[in-house]
Amino acid sequence: MSDLLDRLRGRGWRMTAQRRVVAEVLDGDHIHLTADEVLARATTRLPEISRATVYNTLGELVSLGEVIEVATDGRAKRYDPNAHRPHHHLVCSGCGTIRDVHPGGDPLADLPTSERFGFTVSEAEVTYRGLCPDCTRA
Amino acid sequence: MSDLLDRLRGRGWRMTAQRRVVAEVLDGDHIHLTADEVLARATTRLPEISRATVYNTLGELVSLGEVIEVATDGRAKRYDPNAHRPHHHLVCSGCGTIRDVHPGGDPLADLPTSERFGFTVSEAEVTYRGLCPDCTRA
DNA sequence: TCCTACGATGGACCAAGTCCAAGTCAATAC
DNA sequence: GTATTGACTTGGACTTGGTCCATCGTAGGA
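Predict the joint structure of the above. Result:
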């Protein structure tokens, strides 16, 4: 079932109950949970798990490149398990939900050297904002 | 000197010493200060100003459309006085400084209807990430 | 110049996240 | 199977960024 767990084990990641549960929670649907939501879901499977561990594990998954940290609104960060395939995000200004989108075009190519100011630019991330169908109606 | 202050006055914005100072701080250079930095600079001009007032005033400038709130990293929000001209941001992953950039191309046009999932998409913001000259050296 | 509604104050409060000393346990070695 | 040990987990204190609210002050109109 879990590619993610296999990959992690293969990379020599020390496996503990807590880490497994966090990885499993993320590996489920491709939704974008906050750390607190991850904690809540992890707690239903492993009631003793602590907040610090969830933060530690999330941080580790991010630095392993298995999960992407998304900070769209200055509130809680969200964690995106779809790190395999490059994509961008469509955020609802009403309720905050996020969808992955795969637009055409490469924004990095649109940034001429003259607009780079000596930076070593490595990444371009696009955030589309709007209202989701539910919030449009409301 | 200040178009911003004139515009605000013209819109019937009640002018107080505190509001003027906050607007002046932002209106200076086109850098992107955090609320705390705004407070620090405002304090040098008007020592009695309070944190709550700075937050209130910033929030008001944002909803008047005179200032843009930029949340690039899940840490402190930054305030961008360059609301007149559409632009995107180049963020240093090392030190967090932000530069305005004006790339070619329109990312909104790159998002086909099939990738909009029924959203009413109104805006696309691009964040370029990389290392600034100083952080590249270090 | 006086009034009054709007703005400012500061201190309490809140949410998200980090830190740390002490305890626990997965993986390796025997 | 047991011992060992360094990495992982815990929970509670702490930090940071931000909001709320009752009270006080004042800009701007009459």
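Residues 17 and 130 of chain B are 39 Å apart (CA to CA).
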